[in-house]
Design goal:
Layout (H helix, E strand, L loop, with lengths): L16 E5 L7 H14 L9 E4 L2 H10 L4 H15 L10 H18 L6 H11 L10 E8 L4 E6 L14 H8 L9 E3 L2 E6 L1 H4 L3 H11 L8 E5 L3 E2 L12 H23 L9 E4 L2 E2 L12 H22 L18
Parallel strand pairs: 1-2, 1-7, 2-3, 7-9, 8-10
Antiparallel strand pairs: 3-4, 3-6, 5-6
Helix pairs in contact: 1-3, 1-10, 2-6, 3-5, 5-6, 8-9
Amino acid sequence: MASDSADDTTKRHLPRRILAIDGGGLKGAMPAAFLAELERLTGKRVVDQFDLIAGTSTGGIIALGLGLGISAEDICRFYVDRGPAIFDQAPLGGRFTAAKHAWRKLARTLKHIGTAKYGSDELRSALEDVFGDSSIGDSITRLVIPAFDSAHGGPYVFKTAHHPRFKVDYERRAVDAALATAAAPSFLPAHSFDGASHLLDGGIWANNPMGSAAIEAASTLKWDMGETRMLSLGCTDTVHPVKDMVGLKDVKWLLELMFQGQDRFSQATAKLLLGHPHTNPHLRRINAMVDPGFVALDDASKIETLVRMGRASARNHLPDMESCFFIGTREPFVPFHPARES
C-alpha cells in the first residue's frame, strides 16, 4: 500500500499546514463560523488546505466533520440547529413559557449537584444524523482527536492511519470519537465502546491541541518544522482578576486559571517545535478576548452571537489566511491502512 512515509525525501512545492481547534462546548460555533466564512470568501474547502487537523472536544467534532468532507457551513448549522436541544435548551411553546424555562433550568442545576448535567442521547442523535456510519478512516486528511482514558488514567488520542503503528483507530466510528472527546466531566457522561472504557473530554489534558498537533507533526510524521505552518482557533479567552488569596469560594476561578495555564503551555510547545520560539509569521493563534462570564460552554442563548463573531473575525483575518494557509490544495493523504468498505 502506498503511503506518505517518504515525505522527508520528496521535494514539496507547498508547506505542510496544520489546523488546531480548541474545546469549548457550544462556543465551538465561533470557530465553525470562522471556517465557514473562509470557505465562502475563498471558494476553497478547509479540508483541502490542511495536511493535519487536530481538535479537542467541540473542536474534535469540527475536525471530524471537516475530515469527512462536510462543509464548514453545515458544521456551523449543526451548532445553530442542534446545539440548544443537545444542552436541553430548545425553545418551549405554549402557555407559561417563561415559567417552564425557569423550571427546566432549575431542574438541570439540581441534577448537576450529583451527576452529569446533561444526557448524551441528544448529542449522539445529532452526531449520527451528520456523521452517519462513517469511520475515522474515511477522513480525507490526517486527524488527531484527544480524549482521556479515565479507566487507565492517561491520554487517549484518536488518529487516522498516518503511521504504520496506527492500526486501530481508523476503524472507529466517527460518532464514538466525537462522543468521547466531548464528554466534559459533570456536563456529559463518559463514553465507552468495544475496545475503550469510560473515555472523557480531551480537554482534561489538551483543551488547546496546538502542542499535541505540533508533537505529532515533528515526532510521528517527521515533518520539517521550519517549513510547517499552523492555524490555531480558540473558543474565547478571558483576563481573570488577580487574587492575593484563594479559598473554596474561588474554585471556579482556579479551574479557569488551570485551563488557561494549560493553554499557554500548549502554545509554547507549538512555538518551540515550529522552530520560531519568539516570532513565527506562520503560526497564527486566533482567539477572541471576552469579559468574564460572557458565555458558558452550555449557553445556547449566545450561539448566534458567537456565529457573528466568528464570521467577522474571518473577514478581518482574510488577507493573512489567503497568504499563509489558503495557498493551494495539499498533497493527497494516502493512509497506511485503508478504511474497510462497508
